[in-house]
Structures are given as structure tokens and as C-alpha cells.
């Protein structure tokens, strides 16, 4: 909502989402569809996966998963953002969402997870690219931001492969289970040139680890877990290095 007295005109008008139904978005050999109540059980299981549990700092009972699905569906009508189930040949493969939607400045933050059995096949990059196509096209956003812990190498790869420009590091920005994490911030601006997206890989999923790195970036213990001093730091440039 625009603050009273703001002198700039809103880029997007209220109603841009709520005046229509959340669309199904086909793209890059997968489909993004609104969440359904029937997804709750799989959603609860998804948050049992150690990597999803870790990076999204959440676990859900079945009842909580039902509320989660409702929350994700309601985001659209409330114009707070929008969340889609990613499906591959009808199977639930992951989640991709826009959060922190600011209609006045036409910007939002993208987030995602992919179920373990669908990892290593380009699902995250294809889902992010499909949503970004829609966000800059149909919705006409100006900027889409992406943040991930500096420890989350897989997410950094997804951001770069989807064409998000690395902009910098936000210190101790996000509270995870093991404390405060520095966050890399990436962004795409409308009109940025993006790499071509590779088609879906129908071969067996590649083995990917839970991307717990052997060398770590920055973790600062949260006051609730320990009063210990910041533990480990490595050069942040390791993760921010862009392809030549
Ligand atoms: C991060 C995640 C979404 C990646 O999903 P995915 O579908 O396997 O990713 P893709 O197949 O599209 O791979 C994209 C890039 O990441 C790289 N990658 C994927 N998993 C990786 C891993 N564990 N370690 C390092 N790189 C990895 C791929 O090699 C690819 O890089 P490339 O384009 O240079 O070849 C998935 O591992 C996941 O859900 N993790 C847990 C939740 C999470 O981290 N969410 C993001 C929070 S910010």
C-alpha cells in the first residue's frame, strides 16, 4: 500500500492480482500451478527434507501444512505475493514464490525449493525463469530480488544460472536455526539480458548432496542458541565470483 504523502506514482495499481485468478504458468518443460489442499501431505514431507528444513527454517505437521497451503493460496488475493507448486509431468517437484510484493515500486523477492528426487535436473532454474518471464511480462514488475545464505552454494548457482546479477552481501541478515547468516543479494531488473534456459533433463536425477559445505562462510550464533563469538569466515568472493 502506498504511504500517505508519497510523491511518486505507483508503478502497479492495487487490484493487479486480486482482480483475476492466479494463473497456471507453463514453461520450460514444467508447469507452475496454484497450491491445492491435496498438496498438504507432500508439503509436510518436503519440510522434513534436511536441506529444505535448514534453508527455510521450518517444519510442518499435517495440520500446519494445510494452513501453509491456505496461506500460500491467500497471498494472491491479498496482493502480498504469490506462490506456485512446481510440477513435472504432473508430479509435485517444488515451490517457487514471489514474496514481499511492493506494488508501488513494482518489486518482489523470489524464493524456491525443489524436492530431493527432482534435484540436479534444472528444475529450480527452469521454475525461476518461468516465474520471472511472467513477473516481468504479464505482471510488469520492475525488479525481482533473490537472497540466499552465503553458505547455500546450490542456491547461489541457481541465482547465477537464472541470470540474477550478484549485488552484494547483507551482513547477519537472516536468522537460521544455527544463528545469523550473511545473505547474498542478487537481482534482475526488467530488460536485463538473461541466459537461455536449458530444456528439461529426463534422465535420472544426479546425486546432489544436501549442500552442507565443508568450508563455511559466515555463521554468527543467535542469542537463543549460544553466546559464542562468530565462528567461521571465508572470503565472500568465493561464492560471488561470476562466470568469466
Ligand atoms: C537449491 C535447490 C533449489 C536447487 O534445485 P535444483 O533443481 O537441484 O537446481 P538446478 O538443477 O536448477 O541447478 C542449478 C545450478 O545449481 C547447481 N547445484 C544444484 N545443486 C547443487 C549443490 N548441492 N551444490 C552445488 N551446486 C548445486 C547445479 O549444478 C546448477 O549449476 P550450473 O547451472 O552451473 O550447472 C535445491 O537444492 C533445494 O531445494 N535446496 C533446499 C532448499 C533451498 O536451498 N532453497 C533455496 C533457499 S535460498
TrEMBL record:
The keyword Transferase is assigned to this record: yes
Keywords: Transferase
Residue span, N-acetyltransferase domain: 30-184
Signal peptide: none
Domain of life of the source: Bacteria
TM ranges: none
InterPro entries: Acyl_CoA_acyltransferase, GNAT_dom, Ribosomal_N-acetyltransferase
GO CC entries: cytoplasm
Protein name: RimJ/RimL family protein N-acetyltransferase
Organism: Quadrisphaera granulorum
Lineage: Bacteria, Bacillati, Actinomycetota, Actinomycetes, Kineosporiales
Amino acid at each position: 500500500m502506498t504511504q500517505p504523502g508519497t510523491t511518486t506514482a505507483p508503478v502497479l495499481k492495487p487490484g493487479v492480482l486480486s482482480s483475476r485468478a492466479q494463473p497456471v504458468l507453463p514453461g520450460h518443460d514444467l508447469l507452475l500451478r496454484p497450491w491445492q489442499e491435496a498438496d498438504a501431505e507432500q508439503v509436510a514431507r518436503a519440510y522434513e527434507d534436511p536441506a529444505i528444513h535448514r534453508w527455510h527454517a521450518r517444519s510442518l505437521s499435517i495440520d500446519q501444512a494445510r494452513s501453509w497451503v491456505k496461506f500460500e493460496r491467500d497471498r494472491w488475493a491479498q496482493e502480498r505475493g504469490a506462490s506456485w507448486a512446481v510440477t513435472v509431468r504432473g508430479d509435485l517437484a517444488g515451490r517457487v514464490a514471489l514474496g514481499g510484493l511492493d506494488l508501488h515500486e513494482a518489486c518482489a523477492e523470489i524464493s524456491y525449493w525443489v524436492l530431493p528426487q527432482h534435484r540436479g535436473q534444472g528444475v529450480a532454474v527452469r521454475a525461476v525463469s518461468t516465474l520471472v518471464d511472467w513477473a516481468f511480462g504479464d505482471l510488469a514488475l520492475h525488479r525481482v530480488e533473490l537472497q540466499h545464505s552465503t553458505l547455500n552454494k546450490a542456491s547461489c548457482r541457481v541465482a547465477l544460472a537464472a541470470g540474477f546479477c550478484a549485488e552484494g552481501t547483507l551482513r547477519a541478515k537472516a536468522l537460521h536455526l544455527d544463528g545469523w547468516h550473511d545473505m547474498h543479494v542478487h537481482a534482475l531488473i526488467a530488460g536485463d539480458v538473461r541466459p537461455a534456459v536449458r530444456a528439461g533433463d529426463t534422465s535420472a536425477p544426479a546425486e546432489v548432496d544436501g549442500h552442507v559445505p565443508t568450508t563455511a562462510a559466515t555463521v554468527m550464533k543467535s542469542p537463543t542458541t549460544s553466546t559464542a563469538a562468530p565462528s567461521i569466515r571465508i572470503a565472500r568472493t568465493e561464492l560471488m565470483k561470476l562466470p568469466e
